[in-house]
Write a structure and sequence with these properties.
single chain; six-stranded mixed beta sheet; two-stranded antiparallel sheet; 8 strands
Length: 376
Amino acid sequence: MICRKCSGPGSLIIRKEYCYCNDCFITNINHKFRACIGKNKILSPNEKVLICLSGDASSTVLLDLIHVGLSLNNHKKLRVIPYFLHIIERDSEGEEISKVIVEQCKNYNFNITLVNIDEYFNKNILCNDNTMKNHYQPSISKNVLLNIPTSISEDVLTKMKQNIFIKIAKQLKCRIIFTAETTTLLATRLLSNIAIGRGSQVENDIGFADKREENVKILRPMRDITNEEIDHYLRIKELNPATDILGKGYGTSLQSVIRNFVLDLQENYPATVSTICKTADKIGSVTDNVNKKKCIICQSNLDCNQLNLTAVDATMFSRKVSSKVINSNENLKHIEEGNNLMFPFIYEKLCYCCSRNISQLNDPMLQTLVCRNDDK
């Protein structure tokens, strides 16, 4: 095997086609990372950036790439002021994962802030540059999400974390947030979004930049790196992630099933992931975000078109017919969306998917979510 860059002996093969030696491979990954940031021209010199670490494989690689970029002494140096954040998701494993992440950051001489995901329910999150304590109590959010379908709970947790990212970024006066999604994860998210009713949000959920929040942008600088490359990077650099959940697809959720489907295809058809992501890049919104009514949870534009009959109306009508509670003279135009149990507050405060998610939660949770976001 011959390295395609230096013509020396190769040591690994990417996508069953491209051969690299270890040094050229690491150089190539660093180039992909910097190029993804540079070609979009969003960062300013010495920009404050909130870097969100989950502890998985891609997060561990992101941490190392940030360290390497800041350590350079030439024009390729990454000129950002990094702030690191980890959200504790699980009450049983969260403490151990957090300890590993804190130790990783100490090895690079970085400080990190830990925040429990239950802080989502607090209007004001207390944040400082030191590691936060007393956040290892049992998780309220896990108890709330315990009795709803796993597909919905996974989506709800993702949106909760994004809202915490934005809150912390505003407190630290960071205009930019870095997350560690790889192209493999984004490919599975594209299909999952369409399946759960977030197809109109693909541009922000899959693209390089999520621009739904007016003053804070979520960037994905690792969107050109695959899970396969992440695994090789960890092996060569001898890095150990805090948790091994990237791309494993375990579980019974719809997202897990789609993840398994994409990964199985990728095994035999190495262009699967790149093809899906290139398709996502071509999907955009026909309207801008200015002066639009937005979902109070995900901040996506609400579809407020006044069609005579929508798919949502048809679904609600079918539900009422099947339960025999509809009056034969009832007109669909008189259905009050805010009082509908199947899609509460749809198109008034929530998008289709968030409304469907809220309908699966108990009443106290619904009131907490709506009231908290109305106070923004």
